[in-house]
Every structure is written in C-alpha cells, then in structure tokens.
Design a protein that fits this description.
Protein name: Thymidine phosphorylase
Keywords: Coiled coil
Number of domains: 4
Low-confidence stretches: 1-15, 105-128, 236-269, 293-300, 623-652, 762-768
Distance between the termini: 59 Å
Structural class: mainly alpha
Number of strands: 5
Organism: Dyella nitratireducens
Largest sheet: 5 strands, antiparallel
Helix content: 55-70%
InterPro entries: DUF1631
Radius of gyration: 36 Å
Number of helices: 28
Strand order of the largest sheet: 4-3-2-1-5
Shape: extended
Amino acid sequence: MKEANDSSNVVNLGQRLDPSSGRGGDLLNAVRNISSRRLQQYIGNMFEHVDDALFDLAEKAENNAAQMHYFDGMREVRKRRPIVERAFLALVSRELNDFASGNHSPVASPTTNSVPTPAPGSVELSLVADNELEESLAITSMIGKNESRLSRDLFAVNQRLSVICGGTRIEDATNPIGPALLAQAFRQAMRELNADMRVKLIIYKLFDRYVMSALEELYQEVNAELMRAGVLPQLRHEVVRSGGAGAGAAAGGTAAASGEIPQPLPADDSEASAELLQTLRTLFSARRAHPNVPLSAMTAGPLPTANELIGALSVLQSQAAMLPMPQPAAPHVSSVDIAEQVLHLKEQLMSQLGSLRGQRPGQIATIDEDTIDLVGMLFEFILEDRNLPPQMQVLLARLQIPYLKAAILDRKLFAHRQHPARRLLDGLADAAKSWSEESDRDGRLHDTIKAIVERLLQEFDDDMTIFDRLSAELQQFQESNRRRAELAEQRVAESTRGREKLEQARRRAAREILNRIGDHVLPPLIHGVLSRAWANYLVLTILRKGEDSNDFREALRFVDAFIASTKPTRTPEAKRDLRQLLPGIERALRKGLANVAFQDADIERLLAQLHAYYRHQLGEAPSTPAQPQTAEAAPAPLPIPESIQPIAESVDDLDDVATEPAEDAIAPDVREQLEQVKVLKPGIWLEFIGQDDHFERAKLSWISPMSGRYLFVNRRGLKVGDYSPYELAMVMAEGRARILASNALFDRAMDAIVDRLSHEEVRPGESP
C-alpha cells in the first residue's frame, strides 16, 4: 500500500493513539458511522422477512392454537417493530459511545441472566425457567458460531481498535460491534416484544441469518477504512498464521496470497508448542541414530518431494474412500483390519511412490519420515485409547491418510492447539467419547461422525479450509443436541432434587415420631395413625411450610398429646387430664387428615374408633358391642389414599436405610477409589460396564447438596444412575466403572508419543 511507504501515516502496535486525540476520535467516529449505517440496514432487512416467516409457519401449524400464536406474533411484531429497532440501535450506539469514551458498561450477557428456580409445584415458574433457558441457549449458540466463523476478520478489528484506543486490550466479548455484544443488545431490545417464546426463537434465527451473517461485510469495511488510515496496514504479515509457511509452500503459496487474517494463537500455546516440537525433534533424532533397518539395505535414489508424497497419498486416499465403512455391530472385526492399515501405511506409501516414479525410493527426507511416523503413532494411539468406544476408534482411524496429507502440507498441525485439523479431530473425539448404543438408538451421532470421515476421505485434496467447514458442521450438530440434552438434564436434576426432598422429609418425620414413641408400647390403633396417616401429614407440612414453621411445631405437639392419651387413667386427675386433651386431639386430627386427602367418611370412621377407645380408657361402657373393649383390640384397617401411599411406610422402613461403613473399615482398594470419587466435578464422563460387557457412557450431571449422591446422565440428558460416593467407589474398585480423561485427544496422544519415544531412547544399545 502507498501508506505503508510513508511512515508518518502508519500506526503500528508500538504507536498507540490517544482515543481523546483528534485523530483517534476521527477514526472511532468512522467506525461508529460505518457500524450504525450497516446495522440499521441489516436490522431493517431482517424485519422485512419476519412477517413472511411467521405467515408461512402459521399456514403449516399443526393446530388452531399454534396458528393463533403465529398470527398473534405477526400482529405484535408489526406493532412493536419500530420500538425494537430503535432500542437495538440505541443500545449499540450507547455501547459505541461508551467504548469511545473508555467507559465500558456492556449490556447484560445471556450467560449472566439468572434463570428463576421454580418453586416446588409451581408450573408457571417452571415454564419461565424453560423459556429463559431456551432463549439463553439460542443466544449463546448464535454467539459461539459467529465468533468462530468470523474469527479472522474479527481478530483484525480487535487489533486495530486496540491501537486507536491507546493499547487497551480488545477481545471478542468486549468489541462493541462483536457478535457477543450485538446479540446481547438484540436480546435486550426483544424485551419490548410481548410474544410467545416460539415466535421469539424464530426471530432470533432470522437475526442470525440476516444480521449476524452479514457482519463479515461490516468488519471488512471497518478493516479497510482503518487500513486506509494507516492503522496496522501490514497486520496479516505480523501475526502467526495457523496455516503456516509449510502449507503455503506446499500448496503453491495460495494461503499467503489470500491476505486472510488468521485466528490468533494463545501466547502460552506457542511456548508450549515450541517446547513440544523441540522434544519430539530430539527424540526422533535419537531414534534415527539407532535405525530398525540397516543402512546397507537401503537403495540409493532421489528423495521424494512433498508434491510426490501428496500425490501418492491422494491415490491411497481414493482407494481408502471406496472401502466399506465399519459398522457399529462388529467393531472388533473392523478394528483388526483398520489396525493393519494403520501399521502398514508407511510401506504402502513407499510402494505407491515407487509406482508413480517407476523406481522405489530408498529413503525419504528426514522431516517427512518423522511426520509419517508421528501421524502413524497418533493413529495407533487412537486405536488403543480406551477413552473412545471401539466403534468410534475404528471410525476415526480411517482418517490417517487425510491427516498425514494435512501434516505434510502444514508442519504446524502438531504444534498449535488451534489448528483447524487438530480442532476437528479433538471435536470428533470429544463427541465420540459420549457415544453408546443406548444413547444413540437413532444412530444420529454415529452417522454424523461417519459422514465427516467419509467427506474428508472423498473431498480433501490440498484445501485446508475443509477442516474449518467440517468443524462448524460438527459444532452445529453438537449444539443442537446439547440444547435438547440440557433441557432433559435439567428436568432429571429437578426430579431427583424433588425426590430427595421428599425422602429427607420422610426420614425427618419418621425420626420425630420414633423418638417420641421411645419405649412406649402403643395400641395398634394409635400406632397406625401415627406411623401412617400422621407421618404423611408431617411430611407434607415439612415440604409446604418448612421444618421451622408453626404448623410443623403444632403437628409435633399433637404427636406428644396423642401418645400421652394412651397412658392409664387410674386416678380422677388422670381422667380429667385425658378429657382436656381429647377436644384438641380431635380438632388436630380432622385438620391433618383432611390435608392428606382422607375422605370425610374415613375421618368419621377413625374418630368413631378413637371415641370407643377413649371411652374404654375412661372406664365408660361402650355404646355398642361392636366397639373395641381393650387397648390391644385392632379395628378394621383404614384405607390409605393413593396420593400418600408411597410415603405411608416412612416410620417402618427407617431402619432399612443402608449406612456407609466407617473409614477405617473400608478396604484399601475402595478407599483409593473413594479419594478419586471425592474430587470428581460435574461434567466429567465415566464408563459403566454392565452384564455381558454392555457399556454405557455417562456424565456426572449433579451432586446433591442434601445427600451427596452423584447423578449421572447420558448424552441425551437421560438418567443412567445415581450413587453415593461409597457406592461409586465400590463399583469402580470392582472394575464396573472407570473415569474417562477430560483433556483433548491430541494432548493425550502427544504425551503418550513422547513417553513412548523416551522409552525407546533409553535402550539405544539393544539390537533392532
């Protein structure tokens, strides 16, 4: 550029502008003007399509109620559109003004909006929570997808804004025209729209399609304007390219000529990568000093070029693409064939090179040989990685040839965690980790991974952007599944939490009754009322009013009075005390039994039995021969309403609760596993092995704050099981469960390869 030749007009990272200066202010105004003009155009274009989209959905609605939702949404959008547009543009304008003045007050992030916790039994609050979650997931997914898609242009905007703002660090989340703040501003503006959540989610999709998808033009215009003003005009040559020099050279320099600005690499990643590469170079060098093949056996010949290697690999790749894909039903059979291919790819490559040039090469360049061996070790690791189900091991192992091509085209594949090919393989392995036949009955996850493997085998030539495209498709699939799974997972957790509250209330009620009964031997009638009907009333009182409520204290006072009413009445004073207790006992019983769904007829029958019992206690003659005559006489059992049947035995089964042994009584192997269990965090995955070696992959979803039990769900968010820490430690000690690694596949593979090469290096004197 001409400006680049005039050092007075160029602003580099060392020449930071004062945003309050004339030039800094003019540049920020230019950014503000470009953004306001384009966003006004984008938002207007989006609303022009809302009416048509809602009308089409109304026509296709499954019933009249759904149709009315869409028609109501259309009317509301027509009425409130100007207000929503003005609110959105005003929020963006405010953000740009605050940014220019250095006062950052971003609109609320979707991840910080609290989702109300529904009260027990509150359907309305539960619906509010679900709506909030649906909306938050839609916004978060939109932001993540577009930040990834726009990473290159967005990175350049961040860097240039940082320069004209005095060196302040600008990131995706703080960029006033970044996807995050724009999506948050639109969400806040949408509060002006009183519409059904289904309608709002449709509008968010249209916002993604017509506003977010057009941001690339906005960023390119902003970058072009700032470049013309001399702000980092050579930025594309000053940042580390994810494609790397090797890729540019091998692919004929097309990447370098494109002028694209790559996603930046984290500083610590570069340092760690350099150290890793140096370690690998050292280990491979030591390995070559003691070759497995004697040098005399090698024939002389010209070393194959990178282009020849790529050509030979392309032939092998086309042959591999025609082979049938492995089936989930026979992973062990498939793995044998795949393992043979992985181990012998180097020999096949040398043979193919010989066919192409008419002469088998004796050697290949050192860097190429190291790359071939490194990729081979990577895929050997994949076939041995117990983190992956066998069905997924054989699928991912088919990618060895495309990844060897990618590694030859771009030597930085193994160095940078953010390399597109590396991100794709890590993403596939992460998705595959959660796979099981039970959680993937429709085969959608297996088919998605299989389709990506097939596309790489069939379509990858030398265009590295295919890895970005396939990563985006995988991410979109994962997000759509994650959204459904999170909703299911939330419902499972809420259900489990509710059951635990109920169980805790049952045990509290049972303890209170048992403690008060103590050594008293109660008549069957009194014991039956306390252990069944009144136990239920105590439970419901705890759940509805709480253990500190007056209602609960009054219910416990009734227990004391009811037990006291069974004492012998041999003196006039004792009979007088009993007569004083009886009215209160009857009132409390009527109130309590009505609350636990007893019918009036049942209540009257119980009271009649109690009247007969108390007349006998007081020494009065029974009114009819049918009434019980002794304290031990057992009246006909009362029917227990279905609504309270599940907790009716709360007193009787209290002693059946399994208790965990004391720590000194736990076996050493179980104690070792228990230490691992105690440090588990929600989000970690485990593999559970059942009968006939059937396995299920499950994520630790929730740890109960009440009981400490661990809740596990599968990838669809459905419950797999729940365990106490001791129960889980026992299962692990028996080999029926194991923890899966949480770090990325590539990181695990690199550690394993370094370890393997290190052990080879310590035996240099051994014969090959």
